[in-house]
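Quick note —
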Amino acid sequence: MTNESKISYSIGLKSSMRAINEGCAAKLLVASDADEHVLRPLLQLAECKAVEVEYITSMRRLGQLCQIDVGAAAAVIKIL
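Predicted structure written out below.
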């Protein structure tokens, strides 16, 4: 089993906010082409909770990283 198969994601704005609030977020992944006004509350929460933020080139690429067939504005890598 590879390390990649052990990664768990919370995908989407609401799920990402929930994971950060619950303290189970290792890193926040944000699509660079997502609307800033939509992401602002999530980014502020990540800053308050000291969660590292990594920007991904596009929503499509973020969806691919999370192994889903659609784009995603944000996702959280969860602590296992």
